[in-house]
Amino acid sequence: MSASADGDGTRVVRAGLPEEEPYAAPLPGPVFAAHYHLPGDPTGAPYAYGRDANPTWTALEQAIGELEAPDADDATGADDGGVPGPVHTVTFASGMGAISAVLLGTARPGDIVVLPSDGYNLLVPTRERLEGYGVEVRTAPTGGDAQLDALDGARLLWIESPSNPGLDVCDIRRLTDAAHARGALVAVDNTLATPLGQRPLALGADFSVASGTKALTGHGDVLLGYVACRDPELAATVRQWRKTVGAIPGPMEAWLAHRSLATLEVRTRRQAENALALAEALGGRPEVRDVRHPGLPSDPSYALASRQMRRFGCLVSFTLPDREFCERFLAALRLVDDATSFGSVRTTAERRARWGGDAVPEGFVRMSVGLEDAADLVADVERALERAASGPDPAA
Question: Taking the domains of the chain in order of start, what are their residue ranges?
Fold first, then answer.
């Protein structure tokens, strides 16, 4: 079992492991079961049916809860004076499963929900769904804590910090305090930061929500999501939503996610270092403008990010002159795959405007920096920029 006084590297390799047993595997394999032997009264049974619970989920949820829990010496402090309390975690089949459980499972007709206007693009159809259910949705950008002006009468505030894909940062503690003063719950999408980069529950949030598909699992081969909260009643509401809609993770996916947690600290540390090196190199290129990374000292969000984040994530965003230039650049890259999503051990990039739904220029690039050698990545990106600047290949 993890201890909160241990360092992050120690915590991730021990998180959620059972007590040692002679000759048993340190991390038990996935349990594949649609039902369990269930004698007598099922009340209080830990496992009764495969849609309700699974031992593999339980282990993963315990592990994530240990990582999301505020530390006793957490510099950000916890709501109860810095004393960590238990964290209840519910895993889902995907990040959107987790997002939907909080937004659609919490809001009722007539409620007011405040969303970021510059957040993950699937918040747009989610907003439409909420409005179709009679929920009033207000939006505001992440930067400048703009959602403060939309909180009156709200039931739920949804924060995404850093925002995706623009990488703006807001003051989570300030927004959370303001929302709670007005009687609103607060959910923070912590996908980019991960629990090692930012702990929303320590900043006062009611829910920490993430797509485990990204850096948490980190290999680009698992779809997963989770919701973590300290209030057992809120956790029960989220868990009931999962049961009702059936948005359950597969046992193999849950086991792979738990297996991958062991390298979370080394992966995210290396990714953050590489992302900063790349952002610094991009800032000196004439073809590039609007380079964003929260760990870049020249970034508008740097001062705030430094106060509430422990590490700054793998994403770098920047804008190239136009769509054609951007596509030439992406095609010229050798070490960077043209792919969506982020957080993988391999570097990926995409022209984000190709999806629609994000208010970004045609030449906007979202790059997820992986574990390659930083010097190799920088050289590859600079070479691709030079090739793109030379114009279309006549032979193409």
Answer: 8-261, 264-389
